[in-house]
Amino acid sequence: MSAPRSLHDRVPLKPGTAPAILAAFITLGCAEFVRSGLYSGYLIPFIDAKNHMFHLPAAVGGLAWTTHLVADTLMRGPAGLLLQRHGPRKVVMAGAVLCLAALSLLLVAKSAWMILLIAALHGIGFSPFWPAAMNLTADAAKPGYEGRVLTVVSTSVMPLSALGTFTYALVAKNSDTVPLLTSVSLGGLALALTLLLPLRRLIQTTGGTDPVPGRPRLQKALMPALLPLLPAALMQTLTQSLAGAYIIRVMGDFGLELWQLVAVLVVGGVVAFASMPFTGRIADRGRAQLALTVGFLLVGLGMLSFLLHPPLAALFLIAPVVGLGYAFLTPGWAALVAQMLPESQRPAAWGVIMTVESAGQAGGPAVGAVALQAAGAGGPFGLAGVLALLTAAGYLVFRRHFQTPHLIAARTSGGVASEAVPGPGAGQAD
């Protein structure tokens, strides 16, 4: 009979890394709360309102949000390189300074061009937040827990985005002062929290893989692991955003009231979150590719079923299938990235991957609009289902491209695949 594990053994983080992860999480949470609320909850709904300060066309609000997202997307790759070279504290602090400057300038903005410039500056400043948080989390996770820890952090930030949108929409109805000062205050808090981030990464890398002096070696070592992940990253977000952007618009075509749609989504969400501890364990035990294949298969079948215009009762059966699919996808993708990328070069690579992911997320609504016009209410869901099934097939057909020498060696020696990722000194924190 084995002895019970101690609390130290149960915590999925390496010793001494929890404060850095908490600081990164709160910093990212503040930044996400502000940007979602500022654009979705304030500028887009109220930029043309007579009782507000801007008095600009409504399109400017949407264009500002797009400008911010484009700037964020384009800069995530360079932000990853900067994180790799200079460490999280300096880079995220510089980004937080830019964000705070942009939010402060918004107090005196009077024209459309100035708001667009501010949105671009805000996007550039925001770009290091996600790569820094994900890389710190991956570095801090114990071997065999990467997918689950990354999933917990990323999914915990998502509700803050929604909360920001609803909060700003509530407080901005009759006032510009509250949302703008809230943005500046939280931007200042995020800047202060960057002081708690580590100067260097939470792992030590060997001199042979140091990315600073050996850029040709960096590219040579990184490309075989990075390139297979790029189309997968695009499909990962494209299939999710393609249908999600139109679900409220087409709910009437499926005979749904808003509360019924919310109930269906809640059922799917509960199944997803309840299943993630188990699906995450599968992904972290060297079966990330299997988790992604099963996840895309379930999501694809669930999405395709919308082409049949199922009744409400059937939707309550479809929702758990799709929810279970996403329960496989989220930790599966996190584990695959953490397992495949060379540990010493992960920040730069993750920045590139996040750029591609953002491109898929931005392009999904446009592709969904074409599908909606061509095939009606079921079009976006049907196309998302087809793309999801094609992605599942891609993971099967090209499965050898999603393995690294580390994973192959671990399987050959009988070890856990994900345990091959950390290199020397991985258990030490700076």
Question: How would you describe this structure to a colleague?
Answer:
With 430 residues, the protein is mainly α. The chain has two domains: 14-204, MFS general substrate transporter like domains (Growth Hormone, Chain: A); 218-420, Growth Hormone, Chain: A. The chain contains 15 helices and no strands. The protein has helices at 7-10, 18-46, 58-86, 88-105, 112-126, 129-140, 146-171, 177-193, 215-226, 229-244, 258-304, 312-340, 346-375, 379-397, 405-412. Helix 6 (129-140) crosses helix 13 (346-375) and helix 13 (346-375) crosses helix 14. The two termini are 37 Å apart. Mean pLDDT is 84; it is low at 206-218 and 413-430. This is MFS transporter. Keywords: Membrane, Transmembrane, Transmembrane helix. One of its GO terms (molecular function) is transmembrane transporter activity.
